[in-house]
# Entry
Amino acid sequence: MPAPAPQRVTSAAIVKFRAFEEENGTLVPLTALKEIPFPIGRIFYVYGVAAGDIRGEHAHRECHQMLVCLRGICEITVDDGTETRSFALDSPKQGLHVPPTLWATQRYGSRDTVLLVVTDQPYNEADYLRDYDAFLAFRGVARRRAANG
Amino acid sequence: MPAPAPQRVTSAAIVKFRAFEEENGTLVPLTALKEIPFPIGRIFYVYGVAAGDIRGEHAHRECHQMLVCLRGICEITVDDGTETRSFALDSPKQGLHVPPTLWATQRYGSRDTVLLVVTDQPYNEADYLRDYDAFLAFRGVARRRAANG
# Structure
């Protein structure tokens, strides 16, 4: 299978989920190939992050991700090497689809933030680009200072 | 494919997850057919439940579920028509695998509880047994008063 074409930041998109709000709580379902636009190979969740701390700071060559903030607030910035775009996730009723080839960082807004990530692939270290210069080379972009916004 | 054989409550089991505890937070990965002992067809999460409120109260004919309490505390009771068993989930580092054919209820211990459920199948109303007498008939058990413990 050929590697996916590099995506622009405009390919990262908020997806609104259907929430079943009942008297005794709210239920949000995420089905593979429905609300999640890919098969589900793995999920992971992150918690216990100090307010203001940054995680992520890598890109994936092929892996799709859907990021959902289940509690608290998390600011996600995506970067295609040319342009950046930020999203504030503060509700379990929406997710951010981050397609492969975008550099992404997450800034946790509060200690009680819980971030759920749904991916199409099992963990594969070879899929990660963890060095920003290597990411720019992968994108075919000359080294620059990251733009804001 | 034949329907799965009815399970006893002893088939419901706590699964310990590997947690990557780092300086800037904890990450827990759940991979299909690895930490999750089935393919992942759907996930859902429940939040905003008043302390003490009960949800669930149904069985699945074929669907497997892994329940994970991401925040707060949730008491899960499983019932095979003959015997019941309860588990207190209070950590994101473990899950409860509930195989099909068991009646399950969840008692939410605090308003901030977030319960994540991973299942092998998309939603299918025909897979649900929502009436306790119908569940007992499905299990081939005469009506009784539910035992405690």
Remarks:
- Chain A has one domain: 11-139.
- Chain A has a mean pLDDT of 94.
